[in-house]
Amino acid sequence: MDYIVETKNLTKSFPNKLAVDHVTMHIKRGDIYGFIGKNGAGKTTTMKLLLGLINPTEGEMTLFGSKDLNKQRSRIGSLIEAPGLYKNASAYDNMKLFSLLYGGTDKEIKEIISLVGLGKVGSRKAGNFSLGMRQRLGIAIALLGNPELLILDEPINGLDPAGIKEIRDIIVRLNKERGVTFLISSHLLDELAKITTTYGIVNDGRLVEEIAADKLMERCKQNLHIKVSDVVKAVSVLKAEGLLDRYDVTEDSITMFDHFENAGAINELLVKNGIIVDALSPSNSGFEEYFIERIGR
Predict the structure, then answer these.
(1) 3-state secondary structure 269-297
(2) Alpha-carbon gap, residue 49 to 57, rounded angstroms
(3) What's the rounded Cα separation, in Å, for the pair 84 and 81?
(4) Model-level pTM greater than 0.85?
(5) Alpha helix (H) residue ranges in the chain
(6) How far is 87 from 153, CA to CA, in rounded Å?
(7) All structural domains of the chain
(8) Average pLDDT over residues 224-242
(9) Which residue of 90, 229, 238, 277 is most buried, as measured by CB atoms within 10 A?
């Protein structure tokens, strides 16, 4: 697998908080990796660790298959929190100033400005831009130096529906046309779900789950939820009868993603084997319910 970001037990402790708790994550080349979690879950801190803005307490990182992190970080563009713009300068002048740090010819600057939809703003000062325009300029700056990976922290937070769509379209275009890989944090699940290829679900500093978008879609279809007295025995019995293929378990329940039509037979089989069935119910979980189940409200 061609992973361009891998971490192993990545951890960041502050005096009063464990912000990132032994995170092991994997981002494939070409992914739009949606980093999902509530505010304060550890998303921004994890991104800062990847970018070298802060140092980890423990754990390992590999970028583009290399341990030479400083060298590989030149292949990453980022927009963390609000973009630091020169408010009295135009979009072009902002790009020109930042190009001194990140590289980029005059031709490239104009191409990027056009790409993010700011080609017609002329000499208008960035301080007079809307929030969406500032976010687009921040992404444009992050694109200087032709990065292979873009790390964007809450890029659609605070935007109106039109602004959200503009940012979303830019991300998809860069991913499809330029092959840029994305790590995007957000707590706005519905919007991110429209473009994400892989999800990383984070809660209280821990990476609860990594799951491909197509697999998540399957899981959010019809399922059969069974609450039982003995989960281990129930799993064994159902497997022996060929009635358990795709499933999740908790301490007291099994969620099955196949064999919904056999609900009656499943109930009878479990009871016959001395397993108490406290509840058996079919359901159609949506994205929101799936995530709430893992990170709480």
Answers:
(1) HHHHCCCCEEEEEEEECCHHHHHHHHHCC
(2) 10
(3) 9
(4) no
(5) 43-51, 69-72, 91-102, 106-115, 131-142, 161-178, 189-192, 213-219, 231-240, 263-272, 287-295
(6) 21
(7) 3-216 (3.40.50.300), 221-287 (3.30.70.260)
(8) 92
(9) 238
